[in-house]
Amino acid sequence: MSPVAVVTGAARGIGAAIVERLVADGWAVVALDACEDDPVVSYPLATRAELEALAERLGPSVAPVVGDVRSATDLVEAVALAERRFGPLDAAVASAGVLVGGPPVWEIGEEEWAAAFEVNVSGVRRLVSAAVPALLRRPVPRQGRVVVVSSAAAVLGLRRLGAYVASKHAVVGLVRALAADLAGTGVTANAVCPGSTRTAMLEASAAIYGLGSAEDFGAQALVERLLEPDEPAALVAWLCGPESSGVTGAVLPVDGGMTVT
User: What are the beta bridge partners of residue 94?
Assistant: First the structure.
C-alpha cells in the first residue's frame, strides 16, 4: 500500500513540486488548494485549472481538492478523503501561504495582518488539528510526519514585509512546540525554510521592492541564482519519508546560502 499524504497550497509553486516529488516516490496525495484570489493579496493566487492540471498530469495517485486552510471543516474533510480513498494517513504537509507587504510595520492594515496570520499560521494549526489525530491512529510503532513550509523570512528581518516575516517566525515556534507535544509518539514535526524560489510569490516580492525582475533576488544567495521549486520540495519529500525518523523540531534552510551572511 502506498503511503498517504495531504498537501495544502498544492496547485502551483513549491506545493505542486512537493506533490510531484511525493508521487514520484510512490505516495498517494490529497492535493488541496483554495483556488481563489484574495482581495487583500496583491497578486493572483492559484486556480482550479492549475490544480486539475496537476492531478491530470500525475494520475490517480492524486486527489485534487478545492479547500481553504482558513476553514477547519475543509481540512478535516481533506484528511477524511485521504483515509477513505487511499488508506491511513502518513504525512501532512502545510505549504499554503500568502505574502502581504509594502508599508512599514507601523502602517500595516488590520486586514493585511490578519490575512498573513490566518493562512500562514492558523492555516498550519488547522491542518495539524485535522491531521495529527489521524497520524496518531496508526499502530505503534508509527512514523507519522508533519512538515511545514516556512521561509528564510522566519530567521530574518526583511523590510516592508512585516506581516509576512512575523507570521513565518510564528510558524517556526508552532512547529517546535508541536514537535515537543509529539514526543514519544513516533510522529515528527519539522519546518523547511526556502530562500528566494521561482514562484508567483517571489514575483510579488519583486514588485514590492520595485525590482525589474524576481531574478534580481538571486544575488542574495551564495549560489547566485534563484532556487527552483523542486529544490525545497526534495527536502520536504525526504522529511516525509522513513529516513528522516531522527529529525524532529528542526528548522531546515533550503536557501542557497541566503541566511549564511
Answer: 148
**Cell 492524486 appears where?**
62
The rounded distance, in Å, linking the Cα atoms of 212 and 195 is: 19
On whether the CB atoms of residues 7 and 22 are closer than 8 A, the answer is yes
Cell 529544490: give the residue: 231
CB-neighbour burial class of residue 232 (10 A; exposed 0-12, middle 13-18, buried 19+)? buried
Each residue's pLDDT, cut to its tens digit, for the chain (261 residues) gives: 899 999 999 999 999 999 999 999 999 999 999 999 999 999 899 999 999 999 999 999 999 999 999 999 999 999 999 999 999 999 999 999 999 888 999 999 999 999 999 999 999 999 999 999 999 999 999 999 999 999 999 999 988 899 999 999 999 999 999 999 999 999 999 999 999 899 888 888 888 888 888 888 888 899 999 999 999 999 999 999 999 999 999 999 999 999 997
Q: How far is C-alpha 229 from the geometric centre of its chain's CA atoms?
A: 12
- Mapped onto helix, strand or coil, the DSSP state of residue 147 is strand
Active site residues: 164
Residue matched to cell numbers 502602517: 107
Residue with cell string 510569490: 201
Backbone angles phi, psi at 154, to 5 degrees: -70, -15
Q: Whose grid coordinates read 521561509?
A: 151
> Would you say 178 and 171 are in contact if contact means Cβ atoms under 8 Å apart?
no
pTM of the model: 0.96
Taking the CA atoms of 214, 220, 224 and 225 in sequence, report the sign of the dihedral they define: negative
